[in-house]
From TrEMBL:
UniProt name for this protein: Uncharacterized protein
Protein's organism: Paenibacillus xylanilyticus
Organism lineage: Bacteria, Bacillati, Bacillota, Bacilli, Bacillales
């Protein structure tokens, strides 16, 4: 069992290092695409594609203040965009009610495929 724990620890360390390297490379590739003014390009034998997405982020205090009924907060307990979407679909909340608590964050996704 000690060997398995040791191997697990070592692999987790490698995973952290790899994720850090991937983050740096991702940022460099996204910056390159932005500099070139392209969302899709070919580099060597690879297709590189960036996709811009907008994600909503909510402020707990502002959201709580915008809720019509404090009991709804118990349904959320912590801001969860999936739960919020469900409450909006059920017409328990409206987009207008919670809009003061929401900010849009632009996220760039990166996809690299081998040709």
């Amino acid at each position: 069992m000690e060997q398995k724990v040791q191997t697990y620890f070592q692999l987790k360390q490698q995973q952290k290092e790899i994720e850090q390297q991937l983050s740096v490379l991702r940022d460099e590739i996204v910056a390159y695409c932005a500099e070139q003014g392209v969302y899709e390009t070919q580099v060597g034998g690879y297709t590189v594609k960036t996709v811009l997405q907008h994600r909503k982020e909510y402020d707990d205090q502002k959201l709580y203040a915008s809720l019509p009924d404090p009991d709804i907060w118990r349904l959320l307990s912590k801001v969860d965009s999936h739960k919020l979407k469900s409450l909006i679909k059920l017409n328990v909340l409206s987009e207008e009610q919670i809009s003061p608590a929401c900010t849009l964050k632009q996220v760039t996704l990166l996809q690299v495929d081998k040709l």
